[in-house]
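Me: I keep going back and forth on a fold encoding question. No explanation is needed for now; the record alone will do.

Assistant:
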Amino acid sequence: MEVGPTTHYIMGGIRVDGDSQMSTVPGLFAAGECGAGLHGANRLGGNSLSDLLVFGKRAGEYAAKFAREHGEVTVHLEQADEAGARALAPFDRGAASEGPYQIQHELQDMMQDLVGIVRREDEMRNALAALDGFDERAARVGANGNREYNPGWHTALDLPNLLTVSRAIALAALERRESRGGHFRDDYPDKSAEFGGFNIVLKKAGDGSMEVARRPLQPLPTELKQIIEEMK
């Protein structure tokens, strides 16, 4: 039996309001391990269940409140049709195109090798260059069979999201030139007080690229700061 470390979550995620769990997109709520900010630089093992229960409850309550307060919504049918066409495009390409599993496996291997547990700037830049090639391959991926219970099609739909997360991890890790929590830089092995004062936020720029910014940390509420001091 092979035994080795694996990566099954990241410390980052969707930026949300700490009380309501609403993202920066009005009406879109995120809870659980996709929401950012709860665990800091390293998540303790076993925290995910309590995370899901507490913030899932909050997200559900505030989502229901948001829906009641905003009433009817306008559905843009043209945008819905465009999204549907993009989702079904792999069937149009079919067997003549590359399969999604091969791309997924190669992406996983590349990220493990170049943006894994121990990170270096040169390797992460190589990963970012490789991701451009994966983008092109994912845009040509094909799917066969029916729409029902079709894991190949589901993998094809997942690929753009996997590529987005992979690029976000690599860019954020490049920007954080220190080692902290679950993030270890072989070329910057020490913790930096400067880098401890901000979070790294990524968002889509006007040209479609991923924009990287530093956002200063907000001071802790008095009651939380007191708890932390008591636990030292």
